Fold each of these.
Amino acid sequence: RVPLLRAIGLDKAYGSTPALAGADFSLRAGEVVAVMGPSGSGKSTLLHCLAGIVRPDAGTITYDGRELTALSDTARSALRRTDFGFVFQFGQLVPELTCVENVALPLRLNGEKRKSAEARAVEWLARLEVDDTAAKRPGEISGGQGQRVAVARALVTSPRVIFADEPTGALDSLNGERVMRLLTDASRDTGAAVVLVTHEARVAAYSDREIVVRDGSVRDAEWAV
Ligand code: ADP
Ligand code: ADP
């Protein structure tokens, strides 16, 4: 099968610091791929390039038949809002908004009315077992609850790809496992693929496949060119 998301020969440097050098990657629809490797090896940069947040210096990224690297910034932002969901390690919830407003936000940004957006947000909070946080602000809930709210927000638009960068990095192992189970269950139910950046084998164990980034390079054995 043709991959949903595929990158070939990505290079990216920050000034004179190389972050990616010849990285290849592929993701099939519904697949959960763990991106592993030591700190500073380029995992986050790879994720940011694949998600259309960072433009690589060289190489091509194809998403669903479109060349992401050739799209305008506006077109890439639009694609991110409709097709991608994001979960990061820290600071992703808007502190001034309640949890239900946070989860409804991506739907609101896509033009959905408040009432239906919040109704769907509540369903997702319940699915992630944190519906009791709906009326609270992020400062009033625990870190583990916050990550589950963040997963609800990533899934509420029914994205085809979820980008998760160390989603359990700030959690203890019990909460980390819980977030991973809920995230991978939800991705299986909805058919969303997941790009999971982690340096923990125990987190990567929830994936279908693991790849390892070393010094900015990754050979994706399954799709070697
Ligand atoms: P991790 O190892 O968990 O990916 P980092 O500490 O490398 O986290 O990076 C955290 C954030 O800071 C990322 O958004 C990354 O792009 C950015 N970053 C990393 N290194 C630098 C740097 N030398 N200068 C500026 N920003 C950086
Ligand atoms: P990882 O996620 O594996 O820790 P990163 O992709 O965050 O790796 O970083 C790869 C390299 O690029 C590191 O040397 C890091 O310091 C550097 N880097 C990442 N983001 C930035 C940035 N925004 N500005 C400058 N250097 C960066």
Amino acid sequence: MFDKLSDRLGGVFDRLRGRGALNENDVREAMREVRVALLEADVALPVAREFVEKVTEKAVGQSVLKSVTPGQQVVKIVNDALVEMLGSDASELNLAVAPPAIIMMVGLQGSGKTTTTAKIAKLLKEKERKKVLMASLDVNRPAAQEQLATLGTQVDVATLPIVAGQQPVDIAKRAMQAAKLQGFDVLMLDTAGRLHVDQQLMDEMKAVANTATPQEILLVVDSLTGQDAVNVAQNFSEQVDLTGVVLTRMDGDARGGAALSMRAVTGKPIKFAGVGEKLDAIEAFYPERVAGRILG
Ligand code: GDP
């Protein structure tokens, strides 16, 4: 994750730190390199531009350059700006309601939505001792409901029994009733995906959201698709009130552009990162830790 960016920035900052005194030109030169590094990491252009402007302004405007360790100070300013870019506020799930709390999972087909549903269910069960019920509302893709049931068995989380022919909104209603009657703390609704964003997908998703009024609507996107992931998030957030994003396949993403641009472009926090195919390969997304990792 972020390997290339980390290497590039490491080089820039080693040079900055290595010099005793810095002048404005040194900072501007370094920031030009930071901008190139961000763009190579596939960060959206306006996001990279704003980042560099903000950091430059702080670095040359304050007493940073006159300080004893100007290089160090600049790196600190970059670190803070990175944390802000990644979304500084806490990204915990909001499940503090009368049970069942409902988490609705949305996204395109192949993004890792069903796997992520099972991963989060496992996390909630093991880390927070929640009693979780999962239900698949995907009636379009053959075997989608069976796939969730299989994953449920693997992570030892209950799934709603399948009733052939039932439509998504009705499955959601049945799931809500079952969760309430059987005392589940959390209900996870895995909605249908499509290969592309289309109106039918959006309409179905809105109908389910209106019925279930979930506490969390999490969009699952593939980080390997880079800026496309950000565009998909933008599209979805115009249709439903997303509460957060899960970025999958971060394990294979050396660039990290989607993670770096997501918050600035969509205003939505990244809540989790998928880091592998195994069902425990998921991490809560903490901007400070990620920034720390990038800056080594
Ligand atoms: P869906 O169509 O969006 O429900 O996608 P699936 O959940 O069926 O996932 C598609 C494929 O992506 C599966 O082979 C998953 O194991 C894989 N996958 C999901 N999340 C991750 C991840 O974070 N890292 C890696 N390497 N693979 C993942």
